[in-house]
């Protein structure tokens, strides 16, 4: 009987402490949709006869969340047999070592930024006289209210080919997707308060149990 009675009052105490601990551990995520069109400029800088560094900059004064600018650096290789350009962030995929891994960055005038990397393919559209490409940007981080962001943005991009060959290639990129940002973990003071609630409740139950036992004896 003594063992059973101890078990009875330990259950609510454990439940209170469990609730307090769970409240500390829970971390929510906020999901942001992202749909934007950027005017772009592309510069291809040859590294080898087949591989170039691709530097892209984009601007949209009305972009969501104030992310009016983006930059992208990766590496492209042209396959003369298929007529396809392949873009990757790591030049090691093309057998070139010791080159910096490319980064994509969305930013504006404030502290909010998104970071990631992109993969894409593009081909010359002879009928339209354009270079048409598509790919994905994998979001791997951020700053400001987007710290810890993760997600995927899909994009398509088109550049007319009847431009000055000595100038950056101008075009337009259409992006669409989602990214998630973890909610901030409660401050240490909040954590202690939550645990304190559990301990206080446990103490109350313990006192009640002792008073009841004294009356019964």
From TrEMBL:
Ice-binding protein C-terminal domain location: 185-210
Organism: Brasilonema sennae CENA114
Keyword flag Signal: yes
Name of the molecule in the record: Ice-binding protein C-terminal domain-containing protein
Signal peptide bounds: 1-23
Keywords: Signal
């Amino acid at each position: 009987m003594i063992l059973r009675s101890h078990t009875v009052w330990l259950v609510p105490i454990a439940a209170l402490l469990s609730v307090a601990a769970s409240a500390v551990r829970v971390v929510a995520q906020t999901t942001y949709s992202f749909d934007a069109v950027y005017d772009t400029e592309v510069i291809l800088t040859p590294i080898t006869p087949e591989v170039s560094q691709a530097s892209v900059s984009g601007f949209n004064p009305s972009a969501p969340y104030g992310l009016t600018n983006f930059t992208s650096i990766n590496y492209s290789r042209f396959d003369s047999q298929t007529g396809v350009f392949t873009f990757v962030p790591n030049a090691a995929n093309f057998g070139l070592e010791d080159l910096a891994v490319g980064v994509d960055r969305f930013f504006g005038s404030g502290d909010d930024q998104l970071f990631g990397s992109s993969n894409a393919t593009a081909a010359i559209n002879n009928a339209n006289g354009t270079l048409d490409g598509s790919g994905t940007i994998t979001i791997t981080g951020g700053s400001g209210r987007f710290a810890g962001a993760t997600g995927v943005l899909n994009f398509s991009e088109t550049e007319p080919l009847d431009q000055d060959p000595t100038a950056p290639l101008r075009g337009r990129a259409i992006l669409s997707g989602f990214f998630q940002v973890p909610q901030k973990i409660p401050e240490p003071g909040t954590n202690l308060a939550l645990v304190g609630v559990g301990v206080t409740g446990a103490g109350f139950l313990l006192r009640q149990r002792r008073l009841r036992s004294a009356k019964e004896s």
